[in-house]
Write a structure and sequence with these properties.
- By secondary structure, the chain is an alpha/beta fold.
- It has 2 domains: 180 residues, D-Maltodextrin-Binding Protein, domain 2; 176 residues, D-Maltodextrin-Binding Protein, domain 2, CATH 3.40.190.
- Helices cover 49% and strands 12% of the residues.
- It has 19 helices and 10 strands.
- The strands form 2 sheets. Strands 1, 2, 3, 4, 8, 9 and 10 form a 7-stranded mixed beta sheet that branches. Strands 6-5-7 form a 3-stranded antiparallel beta sheet.
- The N terminus is likely disordered.
Length: 422
């Protein structure tokens, strides 16, 4: 009888142990299976207009309805307010509040990272099935923004600078679309013409932006000669600066170039005063409205190196988030899932997903196609404590002096290096 009782107790204990092990395995399983209790994720974002706002809410609903992990995202909209969004986000996060995930600008990364507010995403990306659906160059840009070997920012969508041009003007001047940096410089010369025979130039080859914001297209000239953004004083970088100066000195750009900003370069191009200028897909609608088929674009061509500037809107996961696995599933959906498709179709921004880039809707848009072609070469300026002043004041003032002949290319580049790097 004692033996039977002992066997019964042992059997019961074994059953309890099996049940206990099964419960433990269930509890420790990674995100990917349905749970009874919803996993709530709060997401902050901004929207430039009501259509974008409505689209984000649609994307959230679709994600909530379609994911099989019982993740429930709540998206809360905050105004951009000229960058005030980032300040609101920082204040909330420093106070222990704020969202689990948020829409993002790369320029905010150093401040948030320095205060240990962002979750590193490397381990999630490394085991992510869609990792290679995003250009490796973009991951490098994310690392650069954080100033380390880790990735704290998840790619979402971009805007890539390219060269707008007038096909009719190219045909009249017998100029082909430049395929090299040297050919681009030569096209600037050939496209600068007196078209009515009055002895005065009335079409300039290139619409140069010498005022604030002009550092972005200028960067392509520095790379064209083999320089980069780490040291403006190298012989290669100085040579790129000299090319920039020569365009103005030789009269291949409008005489107002030192003070021309965005509005001026676009107005000059649309009025027929310039044959080429540099901007991104955000201007394409107005260009087509003005010119119909007589406007096209090409990637700023390669010289010794190739580079173009990239605008960005990304996403981050906060360190305080209680379920980073679920949060990553959400930002991944925005990066390469249905959310990527829907957002980029609505906003007209450039997808980061190669799969989405290859879709007919994007390939049939010639400006989108050129943007995608330039994406592997796109980057950002260093995000330093000095960057804002450098962009707003130091770069335009220094370049204006160089274009006026008050500084040599080498002197200007020394001043630019000191202003940015100290």
């Amino acid at each position: 009888m004692k033996r039977i009782l002992t066997l019964t107790i042992i059997t019961a204990l074994c059953l309890l142990m099996v049940a206990g092990c099964k419960k433990k395995d269930d509890e420790s399983s990674t995100i990917g299976s349905v749970t009874d209790k919803p996993i709530n994720i709060t997401h902050w974002y901004w929207a430039d207009n009501p259509d974008y706002s409505a689209k984000m809410q649609d994307i959230v609903k679709n994600f909530n309805d379609s994911n099989n992990m019982n993740i429930k995202v709540t998206a809360q909209e905050y105004p951009w307010e000229g960058g005030g969004y980032s300040e609101t986000l920082f204040t909330a996060a420093m106070g222990g509040g704020g969202p689990d995930t948020a829409a993002w600008k790369l320029t905010s990364t150093p401040l948030f990272k320095a205060n240990n507010l962002l979750a590193a995403l490397d381990s999630y990306i490394d085991k992510w099935d869609d990792k290679d659906d995003i250009e490796s160059n973009l991951y490098d840009v994310m690392r650069t923004a954080g100033g380390s070997d880790s990735i704290y920012v998840m790619p979402w969508n971009t805007q890539v600078l390219y060269v707008y041009y007038r096909p009719s003007m190219f045909k009249a001047a017998n100029v082909s679309v430049p395929k090299t940096y040297e050919e681009f410089l030569e096209a600037c010369r050939k496209l600068t013409r007196d078209t009515n025979g009055d002895g005065k130039i009335d079409v300039y080859g290139f619409g140069m932006r010498g005022a604030k914001g002009g550092q972005e297209p200028w960067g392509s000239f520095i790379y064209g000669r083999g320089g980069d953004l780490s040291d403006f004083t190298t012989p290669q970088a100085v040579a790129g600066m000299q090319d920039f100066i020569n365009l103005f000195k030789n009269g291949y750009v409008p005489p107002t170039a030192p003070t021309d900003g965005f509005n001026e370069i676009i107005a000059n191009f649309k009025s027929g005063k310039t044959a080429m200028t540099i901007h991104h897909i955000g201007s394409s609608g107005d260009m087509v409205k003005t010119f119909g088929d007589d406007v096209d674009a090409f990637v700023f061509p390669a010289g010794v190196k190739q580079w173009t500037s990239m605008g960005d809107t990304e996403n981050v996961v906060f360190q305080k988030c209680d379920n980073k696995d679920a949060a990553f599933q959400w930002v991944a959906y925005l990066a390469t899932g249905k959310g990527q498709e829907e957002w980029c179709k609505t906003t007209g921004n450039v997808p980061v997903s190669k799969r989405v880039q290859a879709m007919k809707e994007f390939q049939d848009n010639k400006f989108m196609k050129v943007s995608i072609q330039g994406s592997p070469y796109a980057g950002i300026f260093p995000i330093l404590d000095t960057t804002t002043e450098w962009i707003n004041t130091i770069w335009p003032n220094t370049v204006a002096a160089a274009l006026a002949g008050q500084k040599t290319a080498a002197q200007a580049m020394q001043d630019l290096q000191k202003g940015l790097r100290g």
